[in-house]
């Protein structure tokens, strides 16, 4: 595979990210020192295996694009896309028709954290396949919901994967598939779906949890916190740093219900945990551990139980907030360790899903997360099956804090 082009689709507005008429579209918002689009384009321009990069923009965005992305010898002039992502990709494919590359990688500008290893995995797999997409495991329980808002079925997630970009294809095959799809009037959510419809076999390679798509305002908060952390990397490489360990503990009692939330995973059970939020003792304990490591209060001081905003809230929100505070101080989460104390439910079958979920929330690798479980040998409230407790420790690395 010697002639490869990349198409970066950047024609959206970012309505779900809180876009207003006087705001720049999300791909031109800055995270750290660069725009989202500039960060998304850079890994493809720096990859020597990619000959050209074609960006597709929205009509009227020429000036803001020029101010966002620096010229590069392998960066082609931008082309105007259509109303749908599908139309924009087709515009990009047609724009490079004269180049007629062997393969093309199609990437969303809203994924600015794509890494070089992921790009190389897709390219490598294209040697033996006509289509390749990166995927990550689906962690949450998936429900099929009826038109009237009722749960119709629970979908088995063992075979489910969440698709990412860049998605790679043999150029002539995917261009022809897009042309057929346009003529048919069908609407597809990604290029792999068009390939499947056109009969192109699509292989999967391992995705990257950090290659997250910036969709909501909360996603941008996390991205900015990540940039703040990276801005302090020099303190670790060229200066001094310190390591801190924080601890946390939480307990919630059982009440009526049919499931519990534990370490970010919904587990069917004959009782629910009772609390102002979703009562996830594992995430609450870990949130306190992170806050303890940076000496910034506890979960109650940041999310008071008396505040109705947090009634029934997903505890992942609290943990993301604590991780963001660590990142804002230039810190890095090195390790997270949770011990769940209960008689039931069994934690073992859900351990890997818990580790993956926590890693995703924190933006770290799953091998930096440990989840363990123990019983209290029938003693105390946990032994009497009246509730669940959890204790956690978190290790963070910070630029040295001088008095």
TrEMBL record:
**Coding gene?**
ispDF
The record's EC number reads: 2.7.7.60, 4.6.1.12
Sorted keywords for this record are: Isoprene biosynthesis, Lyase, Metal-binding, Multifunctional enzyme, Nucleotidyltransferase, Transferase
Query: Which SUPFAM superfamilies does the protein's record reference?
Result: IpsF-like, Nucleotide-diphospho-sugar transferases
Origin species: Tepidamorphus gemmatus
State the residue spans of region: 2-C-methyl-D-erythritol 4-phosphate cytidylyltransferase.
1-243
Q: Which Gene3D superfamilies match?
A: 2-C-methyl-D-erythritol 2,4-cyclodiphosphate synthase (3.30.1330.50), Spore Coat Polysaccharide Biosynthesis Protein SpsA, Chain A (3.90.550.10)
Q: Which InterPro entries match?
A: IspD (IPR001228), IspD/F (IPR026596), IspD/TarI (IPR034683), ISPD_synthase_CS (IPR018294), MECDP_synthase (IPR003526), MECDP_synthase_CS (IPR020555), MECDP_synthase_sf (IPR036571), Nucleotide-diphossugar_trans (IPR029044)
Main function: Bifunctional enzyme that catalyzes the formation of 4-diphosphocytidyl-2-C-methyl-D-erythritol from CTP and 2-C-methyl-D-erythritol 4-phosphate (MEP) (IspD), and catalyzes the conversion of 4-diphosphocytidyl-2-C-methyl-D-erythritol 2-phosphate (CDP-ME2P) to 2-C-methyl-D-erythritol 2,4-cyclodiphosphate (ME-CPP) with a corresponding release of cytidine 5-monophosphate (CMP) (IspF).
Gene Ontology MF annotations = 2-C-methyl-D-erythritol 2,4-cyclodiphosphate synthase activity; 2-C-methyl-D-erythritol 4-phosphate cytidylyltransferase activity; metal ion binding
This one is known as Bifunctional enzyme IspD/IspF
Q: Which residues bind 4-CDP-2-C-methyl-D-erythritol 2-phosphate?
A: 250-252, 276-277, 298-300, 374-377, 381, 384
Q: Pinpoint the site Positions MEP for the nucleophilic attack.
A: 157, 213
Family of the protein in this entry? Belongs to the IspD/TarI cytidylyltransferase family. IspD subfamily. In the N-terminal section; belongs to the IspD/TarI cytidylyltransferase family. IspD subfamily.
Residue ranges, annotated region (2-C-methyl-D-erythritol 2,4-cyclodiphosphate synthase): 244-403
Instruction: Give the pathway annotation.
Output: Isoprenoid biosynthesis; isopentenyl diphosphate biosynthesis via DXP pathway; isopentenyl diphosphate from 1-deoxy-D-xylulose 5-phosphate: step 4/6; Isoprenoid biosynthesis; isopentenyl diphosphate biosynthesis via DXP pathway; isopentenyl diphosphate from 1-deoxy-D-xylulose 5-phosphate: step 2/6
In Gene Ontology terms, what is a biological process of this protein?
Answer: isopentenyl diphosphate biosynthetic process, methylerythritol 4-phosphate pathway
Which sites bind a divalent metal cation? 250, 252, 284
């Amino acid at each position: 595979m010697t002639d490869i082009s990349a198409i970066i689709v950047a024609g959206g507005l970012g309505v779900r990210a809180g876009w207003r008429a006087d705001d720049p579209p999300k791909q031109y918002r800055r995270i750290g020192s660069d725009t989202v689009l500039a960060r998304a384009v850079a890994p493809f321009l720096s990859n020597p295996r990619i000959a050209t990069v074609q960006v597709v923009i929205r009509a009227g965005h020429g000036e803001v694009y020029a101010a966002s992305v620096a010229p590069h010898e392998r960066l082609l002039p931008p082309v105007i896309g259509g109303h749908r992502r599908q139309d924009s990709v087709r515009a990009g494919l047609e724009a490079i028709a004269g180049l007629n590359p062997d393969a093309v990688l199609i990437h969303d500008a809203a994924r600015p954290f794509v890494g070089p290893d992921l790009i190389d995995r897709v390219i490598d797999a294209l040697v033996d396949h006509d289509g390749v997409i990166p995927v990550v495991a689906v962690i949450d329980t998936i429900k099929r919901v009826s038109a009237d808002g009722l749960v119709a079925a629970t979908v088995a997630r063992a075979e489910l994967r969440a698709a990412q970009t860049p998605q790679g294809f043999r150029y002539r095959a995917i261009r022809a598939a897009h042309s057929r799809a346009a003529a048919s009037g069908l609407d597809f959510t990604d290029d792999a779906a068009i390939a499947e419809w056109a009969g192109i076999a699509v292989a999967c390679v391992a995705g990257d949890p950090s290659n997250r798509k910036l969709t909501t305002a909360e996603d941008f908060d996390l991205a900015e916190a990540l940039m703040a952390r990276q801005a302090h990397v020099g303190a670790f490489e060229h200066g001094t740093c310190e390591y801190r360990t924080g601890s946390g503990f939480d307990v919630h009692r059982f009440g009526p219900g049919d499931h519990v939330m534990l370490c970010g995973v919904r587990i069917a059970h004959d009782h629910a945990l009772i609390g102002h939020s979703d009562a996830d003792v594992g995430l609450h304990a870990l949130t306190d551990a992170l806050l303890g490591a940076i000496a910034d209060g506890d979960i109650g001081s940041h999310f008071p139980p008396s505040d109705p905003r947090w009634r029934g809230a997903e505890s992942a929100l609290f943990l993301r907030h604590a991780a963001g505070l660590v990142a804002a101080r230039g810190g890095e989460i090195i390790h997270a360790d949770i011990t769940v104390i209960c008689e039931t439910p069994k934690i073992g079958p859900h351990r890997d899903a818990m580790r993956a979920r926590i890693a995703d929330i924190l933006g770290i690798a799953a091998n930096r997360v440990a989840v363990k479980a123990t019983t209290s040998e029938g003693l105390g409230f946990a032994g009497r099956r009246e509730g669940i407790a959890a204790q956690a420790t978190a290790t963070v690395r910070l630029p040295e804090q001088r008095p």
